[in-house]
Task: inverse folding
């Protein structure tokens, strides 16, 4: 059974983004059409030891579905035990990370380091498949220092994996250079399980092009979703109806940013939310006028209400700036004062 089918005709997924894809961000992406969302990458050792920080990474609720939980580690037994434990949280998919290029992960023999030991990868998949009845996916890169994607994917399919996400860069590339989508295409032709494409999907045009060029079953969007949950709605609109989405108005970007702030405060508490939202706000409002001035002011604020007020002020100032440019410039002094000019 193709378990992608129930989600949508064109599945668009939120990638497991370390430091970004918490429950609040996932819920916002779902609001804009993400078909399936993944938790941040979670340590299997942390799950087994019931680590407090790990528990926080796994926080979810019934609205946060369908959900994939991504685990990383290098010991088949530990990963199997962790998978068995997170099943209690009722996810839809268990995902195994075989592609993270970050040094602190690779040094543990986890993530992309496993691309140097395909036998161990096979052993991990078999151990996890024996431990749970849920679908088990893997997320891989093309290889360590050479492309081994075909060998890896065919062997993992034989081991029983239910889906494969391919990020077509080598470990050494990290996120530099272009993702080679031809790798996704050849993997798709070589295996029978669903193949999810990932890498260099920066907007709705790229999502369409990845489906067309690779034949993948789904597209996973990562970094481009930061501050831009609209990428899911725009991509779906274009894929389903052929429409050409336009730019998102500044006031809408600010409103969703404020919604994110309120949801984060409810989930994490005011102090943590205010600190966490600094990076989100930078991405939501990237490219808008006076953003540098706004960031400088936000760094001084510690209360959610003050941040929300500052965002509302900023929205009004942008409206005045637009009016001023269109008319006589009567609002220039107020705008200059707000910006600290």
Result:
């Amino acid at each position: 059974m193709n378990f992608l089918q129930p989600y949508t005709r064109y599945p668009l997924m939120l990638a497991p983004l370390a430091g970004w894809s918490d429950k609040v961000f996932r819920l916002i992406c779902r609001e804009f059409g993400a078909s399936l969302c993944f938790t941040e990458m979670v340590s299997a050792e942390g799950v087994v030891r019931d680590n407090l920080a790990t528990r926080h990474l796994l926080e979810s609720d019934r609205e946060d579905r369908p959900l994939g939980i991504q685990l990383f580690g290098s010991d088949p037994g530990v990963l199997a035990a962790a998978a068995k434990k997170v099943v209690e949280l009722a996810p839809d998919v268990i995902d195994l990370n075989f592609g993270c290029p970050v040094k602190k992960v690779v040094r543990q023999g986890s993530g992309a380091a496993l691309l140097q030991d395909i036998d161990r990868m096979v052993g991990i998949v078999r151990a996890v498949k024996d431990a749970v009845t849920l679908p088990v996916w893997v997320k891989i890169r093309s290889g360590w220092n050479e492309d081994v994607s075909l060998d890896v994917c065919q062997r993992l399919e034989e081991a029983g994996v239910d889906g494969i996400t391919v990020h077509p860069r080598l470990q050494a590339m990290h996120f530099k250079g272009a993702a080679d989508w031809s790798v996704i295409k050849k993997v798709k032709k070589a295996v029978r399980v669903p193949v999810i494409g990932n890498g260099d999907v920066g907007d709705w045009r790229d999502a369409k092009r990845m489906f067309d060029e690779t034949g993948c079953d789904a597209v996973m969007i990562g970094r481009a979703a930061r501050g831009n949950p609209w990428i899911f709605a725009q991509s779906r609109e274009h894929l389903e109806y052929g429409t050409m989405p336009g730019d998102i108005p500044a006031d809408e970007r600010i409103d969703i940013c404020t919604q994110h702030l309120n949801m984060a405060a409810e989930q994490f508490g005011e102090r943590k939310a205010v600190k966490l939202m600094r990076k989100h706000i930078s991405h939501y409002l990237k490219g808008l006028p006076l953003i540098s001035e706004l960031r400088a002011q936000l760094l001084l604020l510690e209360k959610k209400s003050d941040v929300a007020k500052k965002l509302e002020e900023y929205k009004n100032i942008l409206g005045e700036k637009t009016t001023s440019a269109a008319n006589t410039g009567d609002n220039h002094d107020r705008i200059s004062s707000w910006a600290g000019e």
